[in-house]
Amino acid sequence: MNKTLVLFDFDGTITVIDSTLSFYKFLYNSKLLFLYNHYFLCLRYVLLYRLKLISYFTLKKKRLDIHTTKFNDSEILKLSEEYYKKYYHNLLNPKAMDRINWHKNQGHELWVISASYDFLLQKWSMENGLNLITNKTSLDNCKRRINGRDVNYESKVEYLKLKVDLESYSEIYAYGDSDGDKAMLDLANFKFYKPFRT
After folding, report:
1. At what angle do helices 118-127 and 19-26 cross, to 10 degrees?
2. What per-residue confidence (pLDDT) applies to 1?
3. Burial 168-188 (b: 16+ CB within 10 A, else e)
């Protein structure tokens, strides 16, 4: 039996803005307070990243810690639920959603593989009947941490291979918008880079 696998990146591919940055802004009543936390408190890490002395993943973990450690797991889920209800419709690119629905109507197996976070993507992916691979987080010693490697670059493919047997598919479609999607795109018979940009 012929099977078709479809792989979608999330931020910048399915969305028109970055979901994580948008969620971080949502956590503050003040734009100034957000800027202070997101940029000033991370300035040393930003500079080290620009100088290529640390990885982007290190900077990413620092920002996750600063913005979300003050919330326990139930609080972060409640906040993400509120964000989902109020703002998620503004994130999604209608062209991408049309393409997702087309694949679903064809009976294809769809996976979203994203470097975002479980608390941001789980509800949306479940409601849309999509399989999800993304960064899982938890509180550990009063810090919110990413469990495992960042779901980005080659790790996107490595995590996918833990879930599916790629050899069992006759066709693979992949949609992405950044260097972090290159390894995933290279798997595909049909690859689409920044396909929904106007």
Report:
1. 110
2. 63
3. ebeebbbbbbeebbbbbbebb
Whether 94 has a pLDDT exceeding 90, the answer reads yes
List 58's β-bridge partners, or say none. Answer: none
Tokens linked to 168: 């069992």
pLDDT tens-place string over residues 146-179: 999 999 999 999 999 999 999 999 999 999 999 9
* CA distance linking residue 134 with residue 125, whole number of Å: 11
pLDDT (average), residues 14-26: 96
Sole residue written with tokens 């500079």: 47
Q: Could you tell me if 134 and 115 are in contact, meaning their C-beta atoms sit under 8 angstroms apart?
A: yes
Q: What is the CATH number of domain 4-193?
A: 3.40.50.1000
Q: Is the pLDDT of residue 132 over 90?
A: yes
Cβ count within 10 A of residue 143? 12
- Whole-number Å distance between alpha carbons of 163 and 109: 12
pLDDT at 155: 98
CA dist., res. 37 & res. 22, Å (int) = 14
Domain definitions of the chain by residue range: 4-193
The two structure tokens encoding residue 68: 């979300």
169: which DSSP letter?
Answer: -
